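Handoff note, outgoing to incoming analyst
You'll be picking up this chain. Sequence as last confirmed:
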Amino acid sequence: MDNLSTSAVEERLFMNNLSAMEFINWKGLQLVEGIQNLMSGREEHLFAWSRYGDPAKLFLIYFPVLFSLSNKWGIRLLWMGVMGEWLNLCLKWMLHGDRPYMYAIELAVMCNNESFPVPHVRQYPMTCETGAGNPSGHAMITGAVWCILVIVTLKKLSHHVWSNSTRCPNVIYFILWSTFAVCYVLVCMSRLSLGAHFPHQILGGAICGFALLFGLLRFSLSHIGVVSYIKASAVLFGLAYIEYMAIQCLGYDPDWSVTKAIEFCNNQEWVHLNTAPLHTLARLCGALLGLGLGLYARDSMQGDYYQKKHHHPHYPCDVRIVSAVLSAVLYHYAEKIYIPMDPIKLFYIAAFVKHTIIPILVVAVVPRVASFLASRVPLSLFSKKQNVD
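Most recent structure output, in case you need it:
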């Protein structure tokens, strides 16, 4: 009993000496540990939601499929992903937030001589991400992206299924938004269970993501020319690189999170360099540049580009469905492309090239291939030519 009292007193004294941020992290670790204990033996079911909610899926599957079905919303989705990733990257460099699996080991070393229990965070193959933790990219980007998918689904249902009414029945709204909320909460829970994020990092990511979404929904992004895409890609890269160099000039290491991940991960094979900040920058800049070049190539192939640049071709329903299937196949094989991580600079360059090429193929090549296939293969189910934009 005396030992228990002594332990409680020591823990209280230790807690009193913590800063506000350290106290928040301590409580966050306790919550992460509690969730891991609760899900022990069933964690794989929860971890799957981290894979479903991976922001990289936006560039490799959500955008290709949605663009095939609706050009306008596909473009808006990619812009949301690019701006979300860029803002998330810049905030992570500024806020310098540890991940729970890193902080738990540092805390264990700091409290090595203390008698009270220190929260313990288990590591898994998906845990050791190399970017900083604050704010959460899954909470910030995936939530906003899924929001757009729900909005598009409701608009298409209102237009094509309930065309005689002004909107879908309330029950459809309730089902879709409830499904979104449940899936989003599961993604956030999976990030906690993995030890990849603290609760306040997820909350901050959610606030930033939805704020950015509401801002972007106010702008029309379908009529931007290729020069603007090139400029936007260059500006985003330049501003992020200036921040990177400024952090170095101040005497800090902008790649500190990569170093920590390599140092604190229990298994070096679990270290995910494709979550490193510079890889994220290469991915988002490549995707934005590829979208602009793809739109330019598509309109140029249509002929008389300068007269048509404010309009996009309206493909019939069967062509769009074939395009969506081909885009999904393209995603499947793009995911299997192995990019060697050594040397690291070549890894970043290859990531930029890969994510530049995919939008070009989706925007300029896939619709023409789909149009050719649809004209050769009878699709009686979709024989009626509909415009789904």
